[in-house]
Amino acid sequence: MEIDKLKKWMDAAQSFQTEAFWNTIFDNPKKNSSSTLNVNPFMAADFFPKCDLYEFGHELIAEIELPGLNKEQFKLSIQEQMITISGESKSFKQKRKYFLKERASRSFKKEIALPYPIIIQKVKNEIHNGILMITMPINQDEIETIPINFNHNPSE
What is the pTM of this model? Predict the structure, then answer.
């Protein structure tokens, strides 16, 4: 009897060793509506990669998390005040015996709108410890200030 239970457990554990199983686990429900196993609805493509965009001095800085990726695995472009980063993150490795698999293999594309025009010719980027840092000088000549008119009635 115990051997039957052990055999069932081993059969179940064997299914964890296929990439198809893990793709089913992490599939976006919109992409594959026939998937009945969706353990994490928050694994949306919009959340990866995680980014910060901030102004420092006269520059916009974007910090983008790309853990485990090298420069051949993603593409970066900037045009019309929009950063686009796309690529593929593969975490499944063949000939491994997985007991826990929380990292998903996935394609991604993220667009980040820039609040100001930048000088594209002076954009710099570097990747260090899985963080891509993009430094973009703000084009001060292109920023338009809009005058604010106050309707001031001294009698009120």
Answer: 0.60
